[in-house]
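Design a sequence for this backbone.
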């Protein structure tokens, strides 16, 4: 079991607790513990749902069946005693067309990082990413595994409309837009892969622990 420090646990409304295990930069070992504790906490009396985030975990409970103090103590125990494990996720290959009108920040991203267009696209596609969490909107994957040399702080002013299928960079994270929505992340390309389909038997394509490999379809300059 990886050694990680005790988390911060705080109230998130009258029926939820937030476990924050962040230790500075994103930590894969902490994320594996988040997944394990999320699974174990679902069996606690009064717990309704667990929602993994990036090195954090939201635990929703029924305040009529239990209380925050009791749940908090049990969560501390789980965090200290639960063995971490890597989720055996599925590997997905996501085809990406980089640059052009649907990848409008590619040139600026390359300039920010000091690489040519070919090199930065090659580096982006060379990594294997892990779906750390699903959140923000249905099917949106927070991806770890971005080369630190490719990190780019989020925009100061979010765009009000970023298209479904946009392949994006936000800080040290990568992502893909499952639907058209506002976003402060940088748009570097586009994929036709469908991440969310409300009518499908399994509406969300990706899950925590899944792996993603980006496949270069082309680069529009």
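Sequence:
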């Amino acid at each position: 079991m990886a050694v990680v420090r005790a988390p911060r646990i705080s109230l998130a409304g009258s029926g939820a607790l937030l476990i924050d295990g962040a230790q500075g930069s994103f930590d894969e070992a902490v994320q594996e513990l988040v997944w394990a504790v999320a699974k174990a906490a679902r069996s606690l009396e009064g717990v309704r749902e667990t929602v993994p985030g990036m090195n954090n975990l939201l635990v929703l409970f029924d305040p009529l069946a239990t209380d925050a103090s009791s749940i908090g103590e049990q969560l501390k125990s789980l965090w200290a005693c639960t063995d971490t494990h890597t989720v055996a996720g599925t590997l997905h290959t996501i085809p990406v067309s980089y640059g052009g009108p649907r990848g409008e920040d590619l040139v600026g991203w390359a300039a920010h990082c000091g690489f040519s267009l070919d090199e930065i696209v090659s580096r982006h596609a060379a990594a294997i990413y892990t779906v750390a969490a699903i959140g923000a909107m249905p099917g949106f994957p927070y991806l770890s595994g971005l080369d630190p040399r490719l990190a780019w702080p989020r925009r100061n002013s979010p765009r009000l409309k970023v298209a479904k299928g946009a392949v994006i960079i936000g800080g040290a994270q990568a992502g893909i837009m499952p639907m058209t929505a506002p976003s402060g992340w940088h748009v570097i390309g586009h994929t036709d892969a469908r991440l969310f389909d409300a009518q499908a038997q399994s509406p969300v394509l990706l899950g925590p622990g899944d792996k993603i490999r980006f496949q270069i379809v082309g680069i529009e300059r």
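The first helix runs from residue 28 to 41.
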